[in-house]
Specification:
With 324 residues, the chain is α/β, with parallel strands linked by helices. The protein has a domain of 193 residues: P-loop containing nucleotide triphosphate hydrolases (Rossmann fold, 3-Layer(aba) Sandwich). Strand 9 and strand 10 form a beta hairpin. The chain binds adenosine-5'-triphosphate (ATP) and magnesium ion (MG).
């Protein structure tokens, strides 16, 4: 049994300008200890999908329209508030995209680290403080005893991200959702933080969902990758195979638009056009208007994810038909 199984999940926002279909029929599974990378351009639904699992969607305007998200036998979308509280922030933790919105600027780091322990495990104050110091040491923050009494603004960006990781891991979760854990940081620090997370993950046998718009971050860090576009998964597969031979033109375009050290910056292809308006119904493949390989069939039968080889799925109807 997978640790997490998401099936046909839809999260829509009912706004004055229309219904935003932010997540529109996503399914995936994640095994114990496995790392799944989620990639896609800004606005494709990566965060909303995972906020939904943790019950963090503002409602209204947000609403879960359909789907199941079964974590170790419990449907997170159907269980009661008490059951969800026992899972969220304890068995499943999240590192948020922006550390400064997740950290309380007026509360000492130590108190913020101790809170989930006091809340979920009911440990004594002294024990919680000891474990908080240990958690800071584990993410490479030395002098932890002193650091516990500091406020978030007294830490650098990279250090704050380490604090966020410590906070997410302090309850020994079975699943970590890391939402763009390194976007705010410069490239050398990014690599350190990813290495740190991977090391901690290995030590604990924890499963992870690593969300990013940067394919470079995913390479090497993930077992499998799911590529999202306009609220749906358009391609998924083992990381190495997907990078080596993408099976969807959108994945190809993402790979081509990725800066690398041996590419001249001015020769970078950026993906022409913009993602679709999510308030308008989409016929067929959502990527077709931007796709160099689109044909008439894409507007009618495209956009349905299907397996085309062992562990390889694509929503490109032309790849499915063997035309590409
Ligand atoms: N409260 C809300 N009301 C209306 N629309 C929303 C709301 N929150 C998110 N959305 C929309 O849902 C879509 C998906 O947003 P989401 O934050 O999941 O994107 P993302 O893939 O995480 O992007 P990024 O890479 O920029 O973090 C976007 O079009 C966004 O505008
Ligand atoms: Mg996001």
């Amino acid at each position: 049994m997978p640790l997490l199984e998401i099936e046909d999940l839809r999260t829509w926002f009912h706004t004055r300008d229309g219904v935003v279909r932010a997540v529109d029929g996503v399914s995936y599974t994640l095994d114990k200890g496995e790392t799944l990378g989620i990639v896609g351009e800004s606005g494709c639904g990566k965060s909303v999908l995972h906020y939904t699992l943790l019950g963090l969607i503002p409602s209204p305007p947000g609403r879960v329209e359909s789907g199941r998200a079964v974590f170790d036998g419990t449907d997170l979308l159907a269980c009661n508030a008490t059951a969800l509280r026992g899972i969220r922030g304890k068995r499943i933790s999240m590192i948020f995209q922006d550390p400064m919105t997740a950290l309380n600027p007026y509360m000492k780091i130590g108190k913020q680290l101790m809170e989930p322990l006091r809340l979920h495990d009911g440990v004594s104050k002294a024990e919680a403080r000891r474990r908080a110091a240990e958690a800071l040491e584990a993410v490479g923050i030395h002098d932890a005893g002193k650091r516990l009494d500091m406020f978030p603004h007294e830490f650098s960006g990279g250090m704050r991200q380490r604090v966020m990781i410590a906070m997410a891991l302090i309850t020994n979760p079975e699943l970590l959702i890391a939402d763009e854990p390194t976007t705010a940081l410069d490239v050398t620090v990014q690599a350190q933080i990813i290495d740190l997370i991977k090391g901690l993950q290995r030590d604990r046998g924890m499963a992870m969902v690593l969300i990013t718009h940067d394919l470079g971050v995913i390479a090497g860090a993930c077992d499998r990758v799911a590529v999202m576009y306009a609220g749906r998964i358009v391609e998924s597969g083992p990381a190495a195979a997907l990078f080596h031979a993408p099976r969807h033109p959108y994945t190809e375009a993402l790979l081509a638009s990725r800066p690398s050290l041996d590419t001249e910056a001015d020769r970078l292809e950026s993906i022409p056009g913009l993602p679709p308006d999510l308030t308008k119904p989409i016929a067929g493949c959502a990527f077709a208007p931007r796709c160099a390989h689109a044909a008439a069939i894409c507007g009618t039968e495209g956009g349905v994810l299907a397996e085309v080889a062992a562990e390889r799925a694509t929503a490109c109807v032309r790849v499915q038909r063997g035309e590409r």
